[in-house]
Fold this protein.
Amino acid sequence: MAAQPEPMGFYTDTTVCIGCKACEVACKEWNQLPSTNGGKNTLSGDSYDNTRALDGIHWRHVKFVEQFTDDRKDGRWLLMSDVCKHCVHAACLEVCPTNAIIRTEFDTVVIQSDTCNGCRDCISACPFGVIEINPVSGTAQKCTLCYDRLQAGKEPACSQACPTQSIQFGTIRDLRDRAQKRVDQLKQMGEQRAYLYGADDKMLGGLNSFYLLVDKPEVYGLPPDPQMPSRNLKAGSWLSALGAIAVGLMGVISFRNRGAGAGEDRP
Amino acid sequence: MADSDCIVVMGSNMAENHPVAFRWPMKAKVEHGAKIIHVDPRFTRTSAVADIYAPVRAGSDIAFLGGVINYVLNSEKWNKEPFFKTFVANYTNAATIINEDFKDTEDLNGVFSGLAPAKGGVPEWPFNGATNQYDGATWQYARTKVGAQGQGAAATAQSGETKVSSGPDGTKAPATPAAAPAPAAAKAPIGPPFDALVASAVRPPVLKDETLQNPHCVFQIVKRHFSRYTPEVVEKTTGCPKETFLKVAEAILANSGADRTTSFAYAVAWTQHTYGVQIIGACALLQLLLGNIGRPGAGVMALRGHASIQGSTDIPTLYHSIQGYLAAPTALKKHDTLQDYIAAEIIPTGYWANMPKFMVSYLKSVYGDAATKENQFGYDWHPKILGDHSHMAMFAAMNAGKVKGMFCVGQNPATSVNAKMERSGLRKLEWLVVKDNWITETATFWKNAPEVKNGQVKTADIKTEVFFLPATQVAEVDGTFTNTQRMLQFHHKAAEAPGDCRSDTWFSYELGKRLKKLYANSTAPRDEGWKNLVWDYEHEDEAERKKGEPSALKILKEINGFFTEDPARHCVGFGELKDDGSTTCASWIYSGVYPGVGKLLADRRTPDPPGQPGAQLQWGWAWPANRRVMYNRCSADPEGKPWSEKKKWVWWDAEAKKWAGYDVPDYIAVKPPTDKAKPGAAGMDALPGTAPFIMRPDGLGWLFVPAGLVDGPLPTHYEPVESPVPNPLYKQQTSPVYKHWKDDGNKLATMGDPAFPYVITTYRLTEHYLAGGMSRWLPWLNELQPELFIEISPELAQEKGIKNLDWCKITSPRTEIRAKALVTKRMRPFKIDGKVIHQVGMPWHWGYEGLSTGDVVNELTSLIADPNVSMHEGKAFVCNVQKA
Amino acid sequence: MNTPLSSTFFSAPPEWGWLIVLYFFVGGLAGGSYFLAVLIDFFGRPEDRPLARLGYYIAFPCIVLSGLLLTLDLTRPERFWHMLFDAHSFRLMFKPWSPMSIGSWALLVFGLFSLIGFLSALAEADRLKWPAARSLRPPGIIGAIVSVIGGLLGFFVAGYTGVLLAVTNRPIWSDTPLLGMLFVVSAASISASLMLLFAEKSRWTMPGVRALHRMDAWVVALEFIVLIAVMISLGPVFRAWLSAWGLLLFFGVIVVGMLIPLALFWRREWLGALNATAAAVLILVGGFILRLVIVFSAQGV
Ligand SMILES: Nc1nc2c(c(=O)[nH]1)N[C@H]1C(S)=C(S)[C@@H](COP(=O)(O)OP(=O)(O)OC[C@H]3O[C@@H](n4cnc5c(=O)[nH]c(N)nc54)[C@H](O)[C@@H]3O)O[C@H]1N2
Ligand SMILES: Nc1nc2c(c(=O)[nH]1)N[C@H]1C(S)=C(S)[C@@H](COP(=O)(O)OP(=O)(O)OC[C@H]3O[C@@H](n4cnc5c(=O)[nH]c(N)nc54)[C@H](O)[C@@H]3O)O[C@H]1N2
Ligand code: SF4
Ligand code: SF4
Ligand code: SF4
Ligand code: SF4
Ligand code: SF4
Ligand SMILES: [Mo]
């Protein structure tokens, strides 16, 4: 039996991203994904972001956050290439009723398009808003972490295309190491805001695609505290049962104490 | 750039337009904390990853660089550290004394001595666009004997534009320095060999003051010239806050010296001005002062545009130069015979003294066996130019009905500068061939152009016959790319071209074959060239031959050079070239790329082992002679020792008695640092072993440029031709010698015209490519940048009542276009001399063909140009913006 | 950007639309009616049996319609069976921690039970000539077992949808654990109302009708309390309802669907004969709007 490969994933250093979107295009090319409205898109007016979000035909998405003071004394343009986080505890996988979503031997999360029936539960479950229906296949789709390429021993298309190594691919162990060094370096150079998002087990057991950020997660459109959907399962179920019991009791009481004036039984 | 300690991106948006090359600055930043500085009117994706962003108003770069020069010259560090003085005194012309009659802009209110109205060209070609012109006689080096003039360097556009009445005495000032014939030229001995002719052109020695104190020495002139570029003047001219400017200047200085280097990267935001060459010159001057030339991590990096645009100037599509930057023979200079040409163009001291070898080998490559010593190697058959034949001049001529037909191979002029005039020119052609991958705007100008759509022009009235030939894409042919680093990389055909698509070489080859056939029986002397032209590139491969595709390798072999008597023996480098016809070489600078059958050096892909210093010499092949850093003799001190361990690159190995290093030394391998210049000698003997700039007649880097530039020996701040502000530095408003092709469709706004109050610049987006032929057909790219927009600051938007995504009307003195507003704080108003000046910007990728269409931004631009290189001023002009 | 109200605001809407709103409503009716029918079967008088039968008559078509709506809502409806069987191995597909998975099974099994209830009701009313089917309802022992299980399943079908919404990461839905309870209670109120409407229409006056009437009022009051509890439990996320949806919730659900019907129960004289009918209609409308607001408001933020 072949040895289980190590968990693989991405470390994305947003401080060196130049927003070139090569990753977005490389992903589309490799996965042959269609374009918004056949390429006849309209200007969003939201900085240089015209694809707006991750969805079934955008498995990578580059975010542009303009931060300028009115006098322009201070200004930043935060650029970040977003993708499925390949959560170790994956919300999408947890709720999927068809088992279309699986965990691969690389510890990545993949939706099997031939199994998915489009119930869309995973869409509402993913805390990062990663999944959407691809109108061509009619199924839920997202980044596969290039499962096909990984199986062939190749690097994912997006990280390979990234000219600045903002997206780095490798074993999680190795990436966490590299990322921590970069954070230390940035801090030493005076960038005290640098930190890693999702690099340890605390967030959903660890994100296999984690980030180096220099502002609060929500600035990048990331949840500060993503949770598993099942957190509500127990309480929700018990409370529903309680509701049922209450209703049942009301019914029993109502039907036991009924007043006089029985009518005719004539169906 | 990976070795730089500081990288200044100025005049380019490197991250957006050269994202793959930008990996090197990012590597420098991540691996050793290099500082990245971006100087740009807009906060761009380059600014986003820069350590310092300095905003400047478009067109004010010389003021900024002048400010840095002034800051450096007055800084304690520069005056104290011996490195700078040693570098400048030994490797630049700082000590050289200039003609006492030279008058600087300080003396003449912003112009140099020698300004006069333009004389115009020959009557056959009145399309040079010149307004005024300089006589550079007073800019020359002072020499021991009177009557001596400086020497021409690389030919510039204008160097062939003015008829020169070349008297044999040569004392009469020539119109351009390069045209100065040597006094002895008339009685020059006939070659080959041409050594005597070259030797006879050697000038008396120049006067120098090694103490740099003489008021007429270059150093003192430079110091005086830039003394008015104070931080305050920088702020009021560029709009960049003084503190930000000082931060930039400090960072550049702090990262220069014996063990630190700073590099600059620029592209077309420095070239697309009427004084673009001077901006680059200002940077070169600064880098020479800082010792940032010819050393690892140093330099002035020209980021070239189209893939292989470098190749297209090396093996030129330029009109004024032939292979390897040899001047194109012109009818306007005394270029009547090969001897005349050599006498006029030779730089007798330094490496250019070998020029006759390159020229003769080139002629042999064109005319083969027919080129003999007796017929001057066919020099008479070679075409000559008549004046400015650059893009804009050609379209001016076209508008005047002077041009019959046009081959448009990989260009899209219907969207080019002053697009309306470009299209009106196209309408005057009898025929037009468009060879492209896509049906471009140029291919359909007769039916889809705005003036046809709005009824001003009727298709039926257009007589131009348009042919469209589908072109192959790069992956469908064998060939080479020459990149920004002058590196050639071979690419192999990866896919079969669809349908009737044919390569561009196929087209030229077929056209050449047919023309040869056409002229085969001609007895006219002017057709001799066609009859003798060597034209044999039959493909080795049967299938390709059937399609008519020529062999890329055969063409490369001709470029590389071989021995005439033994064509199987390829030249291994330009050192082997001879001026007697025994070698054949189309482009001397590429000699050595293909030194033998099966040895295609451009095909190499071996990187250096990681963690070791090296120049990646086994990856591809860079001209000249596989050198990766040019003028790298500078990386060693005058004695030949590395300036520092950290910045070691090339050095003199005293034991082996030759130059050694990580890179191929850009020097005569065995010329020791102790070598003294031999007075009166020609060639490299004329230079001492300390002179690194072997292509210059004095072997030095020129702070002051006595020859080769037609708009002055020193960079001076002028306003763009169209500007809302008076020149804050001089009375002279614009470059006195810019080019303007006057026409009703090419009107210009006067300074401060209230109808056009805003500064506008045009530029690119990562997501699109140029006129859009290569990107606007691709859905994947269109969705990323779907529509044309104009970037405006919230301040201006509020003033004009424009909201984000509103449609706007943008008007220039030429015409009006529409675009959606992208209101962003990345744009800002500038305070220029106390007045608020708004700056707007537009990407220019759109047109009326493709999946994503939009107005052509170049409808707004005008046919005006830099006088040296005829480059338009698309980076700074004026407009008005209104809500549509 | 300000501190977000909840980390749930970064998820994407699944675009569950009208089909799902309708399903939530119809599914609630199915489960609720069945449960009420069972309740009447156990605690009602013999005269109430038609009322109980009415419950079974409602439950079955509603559950069939539910399955149809759910299937139609899939973007690949032909693969509806992937919910029940693994698409590759054809093994049973059952994920107890996924409400959608157990919900699908519950729907199927409850469908079976409501079919049984439906058939036995038909048999009892002599509309179906299959006397044996009668024993599938209480009071017989088999009938008792069947209907207890079915009743519990009915509650499950009515309530799991709320839990399903909670077991996501959408704002509102997953910011409170009370939606299941709300849906259960609401299922009872709308089902009772619908049964009352039919009873009213047939001018039934058996004692069960009045009992059901009273129960409905109690349940609506309970529903009101649960809804207020939902709002409180949302904490800062409640701000998401400071919108048009919130207005609709207030007027459409609380005022129209709860307060007015409650008032009508208390003040019987208001509309006279029409009083009960009006109250039932309003409760049904309110129940529908409740699901509408909950489904759509969480996807519009
Ligand atoms: N994606 C992409 N890449 C390209 C191209 C493309 O079309 N798309 N084109 C290629 C070609 S042919 C070329 S020539 C290069 C061009 O490369 P660049 O020169 O980098 O391209 P531009 O976008 O034209 O201009 C760069 C920047 O100059 C700024 N600018 C404008 N005026 C001034 C000024 O006066 N001073 C200074 N300092 N900055 C100014 C603009 O705001 C802009 O950000 O790019 C090449 N690469
Ligand atoms: N206002 C303004 N104007 C500018 C500029 C600016 O910054 N501002 N930039 C200027 C600059 S730097 C440049 S380089 C020019 C570019 O201007 P153009 O060269 O006119 O524009 P391109 O779109 O690059 O046109 C090249 C064409 O070649 C085609 N092509 C690609 N590959 C091949 C091939 O292998 N064979 C053939 N036959 N065709 C091929 C493409 O489809 C495309 O249509 O524009 C200039 N114009
Ligand atoms: S990010 Fe979302 S889609 Fe990706 S694995 Fe995590 S939960 Fe699933
Ligand atoms: S939409 Fe597809 S992948 Fe997502 S939960 Fe439903 S079946 Fe699973
Ligand atoms: S890993 Fe593959 S599928 Fe995922 S974003 Fe990158 S290219 Fe796309
Ligand atoms: S390819 Fe790399 S640098 Fe470019 S947008 Fe993607 S992550 Fe950023
Ligand atoms: S388009 Fe080509 S040349 Fe330009 S940056 Fe990308 S890879 Fe380099
Ligand atoms: Mo270019």
In short: Chain C has a mean pLDDT of 94. The radius of gyration of chain C is 20 Å. Residues 207-234 of chain C form the longest helix (28 residues).
